[in-house]
Amino acid sequence: MKKIRVVELFAGVGGFRLGLDGASKKDFIYDTIWSSQWEPGATTQHASQIYTRAFGFKNHSCEDIQEVIEKDFKQIPIHDLLVGGFPCQDYSVARTLNQAKGIYGKKGVLWWSIFNILKKQGEKAPKFLMLENVDRLLKSPTGQRGRDFAIMLASLADLGYIVEWRIVNAADYGFPQRRKRILIMGYKKGSKVFNLLRKEKDIKNWICKTGVIAKAFPVKNNNTRLHTFKIEGTLEKVSEIFSSDKPVKSPFEVSGVMINRNVYTVKIDAEYKGKFTLLKDIIIHDETKIPEEFFIKGENKKRWEYLKGGKKEERKSKGGFEYNYSEGPMVFPDSLDKPSRTIVTGEGGNSPSRFKHVIKTKSGKFRRLTPLELERLNMFPDNHTKIMQNGKITPDVKRAFIMGNALVVGVIEKLGKSLSDFV
Predict the structure, then answer these.
(1) H helix runs in 200-250, sequence order
(2) Which end of the chain is more exposed for a tag (fewer CB within 10 A), N or C?
(3) Cis bond before residue 176 (omega within 30° of 0)
(4) pLDDT 10s digit of each residue in the chain, 423 long?
(5) Whole-angstrom Cα distance, residue 75 to residue 344?
(6) If we measure between CA atoms, which residue out of 282, 287, 273 comes closest to residue 408?
(7) Helix axes 192-199, 409-422, angle to 10 degrees
């Protein structure tokens, strides 16, 4: 039996672990031997308590990962695969452009926790990396498009890794949510996949047909040429000069490979011929099983319609500056005949919102989605987030917030199965 030892950073409530458990087979097991989840400034560590209720306390850390690295690094065991959806609020499209501080923002700096673990473990660093982030990472920050991703690629190259990436919309491959995320795979020098890629004479063929990500998520044939360039200079120099001419577009396309700081990148389109899971396939249809607080009362409906609707109006800033504001309409209610829109962290609570999901029931009522339905959209087990380690019920607002931060488990399972075939 082949066993891959896994360390899960920024574990949330275990999306990577569930996906890799699903990807395990009789003769190949992903074994999570250590995990870390800590929410800065939180009085109650809801996600960590949900994680330990599901998977146990053993080898789980609920401490600031940067403090662990600095003061107790030995508790992080030697492992084969490092996984994590490192916090991404500084890149998220839910933040306004002037708030998005990129890799130097409060959350973005946690990238360096991953870097420092790899650097400190040296020759014993993991052979494989499987990371996830929001797609905006490829074009962050606005003043130097792609700089943050360039720094990440350069730093991994300097540690001896080849990297491939792809922006994947989960719904394009039959999953129930239109959730775009960048998947980043790293292969350390000496590993089987590293050696395969170094020998590959047709990098585009790897990206589109034969590579780890391509095998998991097929793409259509296209005649688009690879865009190639090299990331030059020290990490400090990359930070200073990369895209310093303020290009409108990032040089990184939605897919690509980086070998020894040489970047090969190309635009691709998903190809999928299987069954699609729609919003109507996962919701609870029996209205008697929906708590009353999830239904929209008559007096609130107009406010929901206003926020969801298109608008062109004059507004005034806090400083007294008057400006014209406009935005397009949102679908209201959400279509049941499509995969859902992306879950956001503000999904919970009964206050009207432009971004929360609202569906129409068979009886004509309007309601929000329940935490269980949000779990299903991310392909978690039903009520995975309901009970914490201490036996207390997780607040519905917090359950929704957690799902807004989570990933689609099925995406990780497909990627894990592909990696296992190569290993």
Answers:
(1) 203-205, 212-216, 235-241
(2) N
(3) no
(4) 899 999 999 999 999 999 999 999 999 999 999 999 999 889 999 999 999 999 999 999 999 999 999 999 999 999 999 999 987 544 333 334 344 444 454 444 678 889 999 999 999 999 999 999 999 999 988 888 999 899 999 999 999 999 999 999 999 999 999 999 999 999 999 999 999 999 999 999 999 999 999 999 999 988 899 999 999 999 889 988 999 888 889 999 999 999 999 999 999 999 999 999 999 999 999 999 999 999 998 889 999 999 999 999 998 888 888 989 999 999 999 999 999 999 999 999 999 999 999 999 999 999 999 999 999 999 999 999 999 999 999 999 999 999 999 999 999 999 999 999 999
(5) 33
(6) 282
(7) 80
Q: Which domains does the chain have, with CATH numbers?
A: 2-273+407-422 (3.40.50.150)
Q: Decide: helix, strand or coil at residue 362.
A: coil
Cis ω before 218 (30° cut-off from 0): no
Residue 351 identity (one-letter amino acid): S
88 labelled catalytic: yes
233, with CB counted inside 10 A (0-12, 13-18, 19+), is: middle
User: Measured between alpha carbons, how far apart are the two ends of the chain, in Å?
Assistant: 12
Radius of gyration of the chain (CA): 22
Burial of residue 301 (number of CB atoms within 10 Å: 0-12, 13-18, 19+) = middle
128-134, strands of its sheet edge to edge: 60-61, 28-36, 2-9, 81-84, 128-134, 180-188, 161-169, 255-259, 262-266, 227-230
Q: Give the pair of three-digit tokens for residue 245.
A: 């001419």
Q: Identity (one letter) of the amino acid at 359?
A: I
Identity of the residue numbered 235: L
What type of residue sits at position 155?
A: S
Out of 88, 130, 197, 406, the active site residue is 88
Largest CA distance in the chain: 68
- Say which residue the tokens 């269980």 belong to: 372
Q: How far apart are CA 10 and CA 33, in angstroms?
A: 14
Element (H or E) spanning 192, and its range? helix 192-199
Helix (H, G, I), strand (E, B) or coil at 23: helix
Q: Angle, to 10 degrees, between the axis of helix 409-422 and the axis of helix 15-23?
A: 50
The token pair at 46 is 């809801």
Q: Tally Cβ neighbours within 10 Å of residue 284.
A: 16
Contact 378/403 with Cβ under 8 angstroms?
yes
